[in-house]
Specification:
The protein is mostly helical and 75 residues long. Helices cover 65% and strands 0% of the residues. It is built from 4 helices and no strands. It has helices spanning 11-24, 28-41, 53-66, 68-74. The mean pLDDT is 90.
Length: 75
Amino acid sequence: MGIPKTVRFNEELRLRVEEYLHRNKIKFSQLIQMAITKFISERQAIELVPVSSKKWKETMIKVYKKHKHAMDKLR
């Protein structure tokens, strides 16, 4: 038997989980085990999408302005 872990949900998700448990007559620990098993058994991939040079430049200008103090400290 495993060590108990804490799971925290926001209010909306907590209500949805409680409704699901009531509707399907399963225990919370069973739901968590099923969900995690399904999640880790499926392939997780991050799809990289190229960004345009114009968008990259605009973003870098915003980042530099926002974090100018930190950038100056790095010099």
